[in-house]
Structures are given as structure tokens and as C-alpha cells.
């Protein structure tokens, strides 16, 4: 086991698969010579050559379209969007072609699209979004949102292995901030299995991505109030681990759904609705949501701080639920 | 702290069909300090008499509606806080918060609903849909909305646990916001009830053990005082007018006995029965009715009603129809005593006691404005409401507002009974089995002969405070006359 950053774990996972499986190739803007905007693929072109580490033009449609075609021909492409925000350009290829191909023609489309997402460093409206709920809504697409280095590697390998288009949301704010032991060998983390980040009895927080750490800090503060908080890290929002969520909510009877994406139509709404439908008789309080307000992500650091859910916001929400 | 901004005290909505209420008493005077949720005044509506909790803490700065006045729902009755009329002395610093009285001002939603559902009459028992001290859920919401959920809100999980364990959430001390009973509270309550023997105080007993505990092991958990009939948590909320609750005798388990938890409905029935007997002066008069005419007409109508409308014109329906007509001539029997006044009405809302299928409870759904229904209308109404009562599909408004009740224990062959009046009504009619009996009648030339006739006994149990024996006798006489001379064309 080596201690890797979240970013190094992603590189490690990608490299592992490229070494193991010749069908795997990567394509994206500046990922070759430059090693990627965040250096995830640094050194890849040297190791794997420019036929497997392809610098693409600034054309997300072309990147995803090429991947889709290659996948249909039997390859295992991994595309990188320089920022998750830019994926809107590739919407048509992803949603109209890749997501539906299997249903229309029976052809699997095993592509992985890596999406550096999330805010917290004043990236502004074009470089900070968390668009997972838009794609979770599209039947045929899977959405992965790892929070830990270990999951980052294991989920990336699962995504590449999966016969369907998988969107892999890697949170930029975790890239170098989060470090942990990661197994050196190849392993997978199954899609659709949540992880209990922290056990507790009184409240359940359901979250994913960088918000797992926000929730964790908040939960520690609640400890001093004598309130024990369980944190369920979904790991993948599509498919999402309904059983794990319901099991935790049945135990605690109070649920808070937390995400960095904006509130209305955010994936938290789906979770809250499911809890209300399927665990109604186990609830001791209304299901609470904490999410960003319904605006673009602001540039200004104080405004961005007001926008992204902070530890204090979560503490307040948890206390409110605890006192209910 | 006293409220800086003024909070209005308004007449709460006490049920969907209630539009006004009368202030019977202000429990606080102008200038007095009140705590949020503390009983502030007493009101009376045609559904219920209840206390209104203070919507906020502060000084009662204004009383706008005086005792005895009747005003529409939503009318501002008074004001708490605000500069208007600061209390004498330093308005700046109202006394520090008195230690939370923690008065549960309202019974829990479930309990209130159950109780009014249970409000009922049976062969030998009858309870009021909504009697004196049983406020409905609405008042708390309306009046205390500003502060909290109050104790009235029962969350889904608490409701489920309560029903699984046969516990009345109202008996549990709530630690949630506004005194709400949380999941933990009820679980602790149940746990403490099955284990720790109760403290030696007359506190509400810990929860009953959920299992019927059939094992005759004599050393079963130290016998608990069954909270079955236990009163609501003791202190300040105790309604002044409430008659003494039935004593909570400790349930000692002897060899060969079994303990079974009391449902909220059972408790509701028990309490209402007792209350009714403590309230009204019950007297029962009986009369025998020759049902020949009704039997004959019913025979004719039965197949028509059943094939065309899918309803059965039971004897009960005929009796109900005749009762409504007769009540028109006896408004007091369709009336009630309210305070020092007698209420009469130009309508009849008829309650029908319906036994629940498990045989462990009853409910009295109310058919409204029966004076507007003909025989078929009543037949349909009774069929519908009885079915929905058994299916538990009634809404609270359908078990309230009765002005007179009919109970029919005759289905099992009994020929007499003394039902208990559904408070605050004035009387209840019992109908009994129709049996063939030798009967002295006159033949066409005026000689007495013995004939075989279908005879039904009817009893009228009435509140002698309002209805005297002679009045009851005349009512029964007229009712009998209507049934014996049934005019098909008139119904």
C-alpha cells in the first residue's frame, strides 16, 4: 500500500487499466504532451505512445463522438473533459447516441468520460459545476462520484470495465487535498454500492464527493452535542444504493441529503423523495436537503463560500434535525 | 423573553365545519405574563370545548373579545407582546423565564382522533364524538403555529411504534421541539415500561408491555400499573372541567391471566362512557312497537332497493326515518345543554353505532342533515357510512357533530338495554330484535283476539337534566305511532 493523493489514485487506476488492457486509450484536450490540465495523465504519452494518449482539438462533441465510435468497434476509450462544465458541448453525443445505442441496436458502448468537477477555489461559473444530476436523469448513463483515493482508483477501473457509458466525476477540490493508502494491485469498487463513511445512530447524512468531508467535519462537531451522525457516501449516484440509504434511515429515522450541486432538481431530490415513499413510517422528522442555491457558481471567494454548503451550514442543519 | 413584536391570539379553527367559537373564560388577565403553549383562554364551539394555548411568550397586552362573546374563526381575540400596553413597571424587562412548565397543552393528534372516532354508542355504551375536554388537532396548529409543532404532531415513526406497542403517544414525555414526542422518547418509554418498575409516584405509568405475555410465569415483569385508563400527564394541562378520569388500577397478573394492551380507541371509549355517566342523568324508557306494517312494506321494497340501488332497507332505516320526523316535534330531544343554555336545532345529524369487525371497538359515524333524506337516502347513507367505518375510511368530521344517536344491539336478539348517551347529546335510541309475539288486537267487529305480530322494543335513554319522563314517553308514543301506521307514500 502506498499513500496516494486522490489525483494520483486516479492516474494509478488509469495506468493500471492501460497496462492491463490494450483496448483502453485516453483522449482529451492537452492530455498528451502537457499531461492534462491537472496532470492526471502526466507521463502517459511517454509510456503508452501517442496512439493511446491522444491530444484532441477543443471539441468535446468530437471527443465523445470518437469514443463512442471506437467503443462500438470494440475499444475501451477514456475521454477527459478538461472541466466537467464543458460536457454540455458533448450532450448530444452522450445522451442521444451513447446512452441509447445499446437500447436501439444492442451494441454496448463501454466509454468512460472523466469529468473534473466541483468548486471551492474560485473557478467561477464555467469551471466549478457538479452536473451529475443532469446525467443521472438520462437512462443509459452511469454516474460515479468517488470521495476517497481508494474509491477513485477502484471506481475508475469499474467504470472502464463497465459495458455502458460511465461518467466519472472527479472532484477537483479533492485532487491534492485528500491523501490515503491505496492498494497497489488492481481492484474494483462495484458501481451502485454505497459506503458507510461514518457510523452513527441519531442522524443520517447522505452525500457524495467532496461533501463527504464537509459532512464528516460537521458530524465531529455534533459529537460534542452527544448526537451521533452516520454518513452514507453514495460513491455512485447512478445507479445509487437505495437499500443502503433506506437501511440507515430506518435506523436513525432522520435524514439529511447533502450535495454541492444546486438544489432544485439536484439528485438529492430523488433521494429525499425515495425516502419519503419507502421509509415514511420510519421517519421522525422531515427529510432535509442542504445544497447550493439555484444560481451559477459565483467567482468571488466570499460569494462562492456562501454558495457551496459549508461545515457550519451542515452543522446547523444537523442540529435542527437533532432538535426536531 | 417577552416577544418584542406583537403576536395575535386568534380564534382557532376547531374542525372543518366550525366557523365560530365562544370565549368561555380568559385564563390570563391583561398585563399578565404568559409562556408559549400555556393555556391562555377557554373556548367553546359546537364541536368541542377546549383551551387555547398562548401562541408565544410575552405579556398579554390586549383582550379584544370578552367572555361570553361569540366570534368567527380567525378573529383576533387578543395580543401578546408589542408596545401597546406594557405591563406596569419596567416594560423593558419582563420577568425572567419561569422554569418551563412544560405543560402539554393539547392531547396528541392521534389520541384526539382516536378518541373522537371512538366516540360511540354500543349496546350498552355510547360516547360523544367530541366532548368537553377533547380538543381537536387544529387548535394547536392554528394557535401555536408561531412557536413550534407543539406536542400535537406525531411523526410517522412514532405513530407506527405507538400502534405496534399499543402505546398512546400522548402519555410520553416529549423532548423534541415544542415537546414533540421523538422516536427516542417513545422507545425509551416502552423500554422503561417493560423493565424498570415504576417510581412510586402516581405518574403516568410506563408503557404497557406490547406482548400479551401469555406465559403464565408468575414472575413476569413486576406488574405495571396499566396506563390503560391513566389520565394524561398530570399537572397543569389538566382541564378544570374534566371529570375525574377512571382510576388506573395496577394490573396484577395472576396465574392463568393474560395482559393485553389497551388500544387508544378502547381508552377513548372507556373515558367517554365514564364521562357521559358523570355528566348526564341517565333514565331509560321502553316501548313495544308492532312492526307489522314496516315488515310488510320492507318486504316489498327490499328486492327493489337491492336490485336498483344495492342497499338493504333494514328495520334500522325505517326507525331512523321515523325518528327524524318525530324529533321535529321534540326539539329538546335533538338538543343539548350548553353552559346554562339549551341548544335546539332545525336539523338532525344522526349517529349510528357501528361495531368494528374485530369486535373490539365501535365507532359512531354521523349522517348529516338526515331531515333532508327520504327512506332510500337514509338507506344509502347508512350503508355507505357503516361500510367506511368498518374500512376505517371515515374522516374526523364524519364522526362529529351528531345531534342524536341510534344504537342497534338487537341484531343479536337482545330485547332491552340501557345505552349510554353520546355527549353532549340529550338522548339515544336503542333498537332491539323484531320477534314474533302473541299480541292482543281487535278484530274487525271490535273483539279482542290474540294475533301473532312482529314486535320490536325501542328504548329511549335520555338526560333527565333536560328531558323529563313525560316528554320521553310522548316521543316514544309518537315514534311508535309512526312505525305502526307507516304510510308508504309519505316516505
Compose a concise summary of this entry.
Chain A is an alpha/beta fold and 324 residues long. In chain A, 38% of the residues lie in helices and 20% in strands.
For the structure shown, list the relevant keywords:
heterodimer; A: 324 residues; alpha/beta; 7-stranded mixed sheet; 11 helices; globular; B: 491 residues; alpha+beta; 6-stranded mixed sheet; 4-stranded antiparallel sheet; 18 strands; 25% helix
Description:
The complex is a heterodimer of chains A (324) and B (491). Chain A is of the alpha/beta class. Chain A is built from 11 helices and 14 strands. The longest helix of chain A has 15 residues, at 6-20. Chain A is globular. Chain B contains 9 helices and 18 strands. Chain B has helices at 109-118, 137-144, 156-165, 183-194, 264-279, 292-309, 315-329, 375-390, 469-484, and strands at residues 7-10, 20-26, 33-34, 39-44, 49-53, 58-63, 70-72, 76-80, 282-290, 336-338, 341-343, 350-352, 354-355, 362-363, 366-367, 404-407, 427-442, 448-463. A 6-stranded mixed beta sheet of chain B has the order 9-18-17-16-12-15. A 4-stranded antiparallel beta sheet of chain B has the order 1-8-6-3, with no helix packed on it. Chain B has a 4-stranded antiparallel beta sheet with strand order 5-4-2-7. In chain B, a hairpin with a 4-residue loop joins strand 4 and strand 5 (49-53). The radius of gyration of chain B is 26 Å and the shape is globular. The relative contact order of chain B is 0.12. Chains A and B meet through loops of A and helix 3 of B.
Q: Which secondary structure elements does this structure contain, and how are they paired or packed?
A:
The complex is a heterodimer of chains A (324) and B (491).
Chain A: E1 2-5, H1 6-20, E2 24-28, H2 44-48, E3 53-55, H3 60-72, E4 76-80, H4 91-105, E5 112-117, H5 132-136, E6 142-144, H6 149-161, E7 166-171, E8 179-182, E9 195-198, E10 203-207, H7 211-223, E11 229-233, E12 236-238, H8 242-252, E13 255-262, H9 267-278, E14 288-292, H10 301-307, H11 311-323
Parallel strand pairs in A: 2-3, 2-4, 4-5, 5-7, 6-7, 10-11, 10-13, 13-14
Antiparallel strand pairs in A: 1-8, 6-12, 9-11
Chain B: E1 7-10, E2 20-26, E3 33-34, E4 39-44, E5 49-53, E6 58-63, E7 70-72, E8 76-80, H1 109-118, H2 137-144, H3 156-165, H4 183-194, H5 264-279, E9 282-290, H6 292-309, H7 315-329, E10 336-338, E11 341-343, E12 350-352, E13 354-355, E14 362-363, E15 366-367, H8 375-390, E16 404-407, E17 427-442, E18 448-463, H9 469-484
Parallel strand pairs in B: 12-16, 16-17
Antiparallel strand pairs in B: 1-8, 2-4, 2-7, 3-6, 4-5, 6-8, 9-18, 10-11, 12-15, 13-14, 17-18
Helix pairs in contact in B: 1-5, 3-4, 7-8, 7-9
Amino acid at each position: 500500500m502506498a499513500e496516494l493523493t486522490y489525483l494520483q489514485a486516479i492516474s494509478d487506476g488509469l495506468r493500471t487499466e492501460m497496462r492491463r488492457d490494450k483496448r483502453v486509450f485516453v483522449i482529451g484536450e492537452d492530455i498528451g504532451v502537457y499531461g492534462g490540465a491537472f496532470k492526471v495523465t502526466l507521463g502517459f504519452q511517454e509510456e503508452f505512445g501517442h496512439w493511446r494518449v491522444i491530444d484532441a482539438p477543443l471539441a468535446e462533441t468530437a471527443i465523445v463522438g470518437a469514443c463512442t465510435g471506437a467503443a462500438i468497434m470494440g475499444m475501451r476509450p477514456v475521454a477527459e473533459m478538461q472541466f466537467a462544465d464543458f460536457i454540455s458541448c458533448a450532450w448530444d453525443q452522450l445522451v442521444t447516441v451513447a446512452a441509447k445505442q445499446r437500447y436501439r441496436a444492442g451494441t454496448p458502448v463501454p466509454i468512460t468520460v472523466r469529468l473534473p468537477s466541483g468548486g471551492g477555489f474560485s473557478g467561477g461559473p464555467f469551471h466549478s459545476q457538479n452536473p451529475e444530476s443532469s446525467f443521472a436523469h438520462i437512462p443509459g448513463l452511469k454516474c460515479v462520484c468517488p470521495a476517497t483515493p481508494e474509491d477513485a482508483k477502484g471506481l475508475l477501473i469499474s467504470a472502464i470495465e463497465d459495458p455502458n457509458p460511465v461518467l466519472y466525476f472527479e472532484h477537483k477540490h479533492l485532487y491534492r487535498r485528500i491523501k490515503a493508502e491505496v492498494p497497489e494491485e488492481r481492484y474494483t469498487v462495484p458501481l451502485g454500492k454505497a459506503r458507510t463513511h461514518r457510523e452513527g445512530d441519531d442522524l443520517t447524512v447522505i452525500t457524495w464527493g467532496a461533501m463527504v468531508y464537509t459532512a464528516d467535519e460537521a458530524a465531529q462537531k455534533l459529537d460534542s452535542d452527544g448526537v451521533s451522525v452516520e454518513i452514507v457516501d453514495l460513491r455512485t449516484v447512478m445507479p445509487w444504493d437505495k437499500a443502503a440509504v433506506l437501511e440507515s434511515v430506518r435506523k436513525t429515522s432522520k435524514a439529511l441529503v447533502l450535495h454541492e450541486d444546486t438544489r432544485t432538481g439536484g439528485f438529492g431530490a430523488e433521494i429525499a423523495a425515495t425516502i419519503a415513499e419507502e421509509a415514511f413510517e420510519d421517519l421522525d422528522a422531515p427529510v432535509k436537503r442542504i445544497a447550493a442555491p439555484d444560481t451559477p457558481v459565483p467567482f468571488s471567494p466570499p460569494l462562492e463560500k456562501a454558495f457551496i454548503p459549508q461545515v457550519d451550514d451542515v452543522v446547523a442543519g444537523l442540529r435542527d434535525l437533532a432538535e426536531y | 423573553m417577552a416577544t418584542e413584536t406583537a403576536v395575535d391570539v386568534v380564534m382557532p379553527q376547531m374542525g372543518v365545519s366550525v366557523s365560530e367559537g365562544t370565549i368561555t373564560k380568559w385564563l390570563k388577565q391583561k398585563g399578565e405574563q404568559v409562556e408559549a403553549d400555556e393555556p391562555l383562554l377557554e373556548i367553546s364551539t359546537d364541536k368541542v370545548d377546549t383551551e387555547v394555548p398562548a401562541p408565544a411568550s410575552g405579556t398579554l397586552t390586549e383582550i379584544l373579545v370578552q367572555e361570553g362573546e361569540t366570534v368567527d374563526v380567525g378573529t383576533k381575540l387578543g395580543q401578546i407582546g408589542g408596545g401597546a400596553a406594557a405591563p406596569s413597571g419596567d416594560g423593558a424587562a419582563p420577568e425572567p423565564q419561569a422554569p418551563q412548565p412544560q405543560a402539554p397543552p393539547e392531547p396528541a393528534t392521534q389520541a384526539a382522533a382516536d378518541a373522537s372516532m371512538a366516540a360511540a354508542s354500543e349496546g350498552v355504551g355510547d360516547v360523544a364524538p367530541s366532548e368537553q375536554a377533547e380538543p381537536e388537532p387544529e387548535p394547536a396548529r392554528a394557535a401555536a403555529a408561531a412557536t413550534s409543532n407543539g406536542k400535537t404532531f406525531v411523526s410517522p415513526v412514532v405513530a407506527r411504534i405507538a400502534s405496534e406497542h399499543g402505546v398512546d403517544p400522548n402519555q410520553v414525555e416529549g423532548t423534541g421541539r415544542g415537546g414533540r414526542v421523538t422516536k427516542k422518547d417513545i422507545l425509551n418509554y416502552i423500554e422503561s415500561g417493560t423493565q424498570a418498575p415504576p417510581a412510586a409516584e402516581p405518574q403516568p405509568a410506563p408503557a404497557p408491555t406490547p406482548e400479551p405475555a401469555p406465559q403464565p410465569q408468575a414472575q413476569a415483569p413486576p406488574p405495571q400499573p396499566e396506563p390503560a385508563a391513566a389520565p394524561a400527564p398530570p399537572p397543569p394541562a389538566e382541564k378544570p372541567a374534566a371529570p375525574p378520569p377512571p382510576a388506573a388500577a395496577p394490573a396484577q397478573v395472576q396465574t392463568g391471566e393474560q395482559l393485553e394492551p389497551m388500544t387508544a380507541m378502547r381508552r377513548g371509549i372507556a373515558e367517554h362512557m365514564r364521562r357521559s355517566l358523570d355528566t348526564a342523568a341517565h333514565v331509560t324508557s321502553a316501548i313495544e312497537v308492532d312492526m307489522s306494517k314496516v315488515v310488510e312494506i320492507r318486504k316489498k321494497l327490499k328486492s327493489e332497493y337491492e336490485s336498483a340501488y344495492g342497499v338493504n332497507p333494514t328495520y334500522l332505516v325505517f326507525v331512523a326515518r321515523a325518528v327524524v320526523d318525530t324529533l321535529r316535534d321534540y326539539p329538546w330531544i335533538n338538543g343539548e345543554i350548553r353552559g346554562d343554555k339549551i341548544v335546539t336545532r332545525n336539523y338532525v345529524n344522526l349517529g349510528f353505532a357501528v361495531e368494528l369487525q374485530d369486535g373490539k371497538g365501535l365507532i359512531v359515524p354521523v349522517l348529516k342533515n338526515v331531515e333532508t333524506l327520504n327512506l332510500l337516502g337514509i338507506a344509502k347513507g347508512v350503508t355507505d357510512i357503516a361500510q367506511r367505518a368498518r374500512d376505517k375510511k371515515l374522516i374526523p368530521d364524519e364522526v362529529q357533530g351528531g345531534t342524536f344517536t341510534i344504537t342497534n344491539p338487537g341484531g343479536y336478539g337482545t330485547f332491552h338495554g340501557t345505552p349510554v348517551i353520546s355527549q353532549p347529546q340529550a338522548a339515544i335510541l336503542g333498537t332491539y330484535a323484531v320477534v314474533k309475539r302473541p299480541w292482543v288486537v281487535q278484530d274487525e267487529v271490535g273483539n279482542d283476539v290474540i294475533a301473532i305480530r312482529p314486535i320490536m322494543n325501542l328504548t329511549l335513554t335520555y338526560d333527565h337534566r333536560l328531558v323529563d319522563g313525560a316528554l320521553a314517553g310522548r316521543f316514544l308514543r309518537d315514534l311508535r305511532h309512526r312505525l305502526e301506521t307507516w304510510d308508504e307514500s309519505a316516505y
